[in-house]
Amino acid sequence: PFTVTTNHLTLKVLGTTFNVSAYPDNNQVMATLETGKLQVKVNEQPAEYFLEPNDQLIYTPATGKIQRHKINTALYSNWKTGGLFFGNTPFCDVLHTLERVYGVKFQLHTSAYQNQSLRVHFNKDESLEHVLQIIKILIPGIEYEIADKNIYVK
Questions:
Q1: How many whole angstroms separate alpha carbon 82 and alpha carbon 32?
Q2: Average pLDDT for residues 5-14, to the nearest whole number?
Q3: Which residue in 139, 42, 58 sits closest to 91, CA to CA?
Q4: Which helix (H) or strand (E) holds 48?
Q5: Could you give the CA distance from residue 92 to residue 139 in angstroms, rounded to a whole number?
Q6: CA gap 93, 123 in Å, rounded
Q7: pTM for this one?
Q8: Where are the alpha helices (DSSP H) in 11-127?
Q9: Of the candidates 114, 79, 118, which has an alpha carbon nearest to the alpha carbon of residue 100?
Q10: SS3 116
Q11: What span, in angstroms and rounded, lies between the C-alpha atoms of 28 and 153?
Q12: What digits encode the pLDDT tens for the residues 63-88?
């Protein structure tokens, strides 16, 4: 076994295929198990979680909340082939991911969407413009303007 350590989680790999999403600018840390078995410990908490295939553990550091779900792991492994899947993902985390994938910077001029979450799948090679059009359909009233590598959300 080997151990993967993030700012908030310690994952002990017990012969497995898994994904971990632990970007410092995201509100949640996720561990998703595809195959095998995975032991997860949240920093400074005594409990350990043993994930089975198709299990996902979501930890929200700001609240200390830990959620465990059965999911379709194929959706969460899309990033390996260039696709993106957001399953009830906080809007700010979606924007951070889009910044990394498309090399842009989002500028929020409103806090109206801070409690919004998105559940959406984007295929490999979707253009940023198409992604933004879909987000506009999913979040009525959202407006944006693209200026070079900056996207202004109103």
A1: 18
A2: 87
A3: 139
A4: strand 48-51
A5: 13
A6: 18
A7: 0.60
A8: 73-76, 91-102
A9: 79
A10: coil
A11: 22
A12: 999 999 998 886 666 666 677 888 88
Write out pLDDT tens, residues 10-68. Answer: 888 776 788 888 888 888 898 989 888 889 999 888 899 999 999 999 999 999 999 99
Question: What letter represents residue 78's amino acid?
Answer: N
Strands in 9-13's sheet, in edge-to-edge order, are 2-5, 9-13, 38-42, 48-51
The CA distance from 53 to 31, in Å, is 11
Residue 48's identity, in one-letter code, is E
The residue type found at 87 is: G
Residues 6+ apart with CB under 8 A from 79: 19, 85
- Taking the C-alpha atoms of residue 126 and residue 81, their distance in angstroms, rounded to an integer, is 12
Other Cβ atoms less than 10 A from the Cβ of 124: the count is 10
Query: What φ, ψ does residue 58 adopt, rounded to 5°?
Result: -120, 125
Q: Count CB neighbours of 12 within 10 A.
A: 17
> How many Cβ atoms are within 10 Å of 52's Cβ, its own excluded?
11
Check if the beta carbon of residue 60 is closer than 8 Å to that of residue 90.
no
| d(C-alpha 99, C-alpha 50), whole Å | 32
